[in-house]
Amino acid sequence: MSNSSESILANGYSIFHGTDAWRAFSKFINLGAKTYASVNILVDAQVEQFCLPALIEKAPSLANASIIRIPSGEASKNIDTVIQIWKTLQENGATRHSLLINLGGGVITDTGGFAASTFKRGMDFINIPTTLLGQVDAAIGGKTGIDFLEIKNQVGLIKCPAAVFVFPEYLKTQDHEQLRSGYAEILKYGLITDKQLWESAISNHSDFSNYSESTWRELIQKSLIIKNDIVLKDPEEQGLRKLLNFGHTVGHAIEAHALKNDELPISHGRAVAIGMICEAYISSRVLNLSTAELDQIAQALLRIFEKGDLLIPDDSTLIELMRHDKKNVNSNISFTLLNSIASAEIDQHCETKIISEALNYYRDL
Ligand code: GLY
Question: In this predicted structure, what is the pLDDT of residue 1?
Answer without folding.
Answer: 46
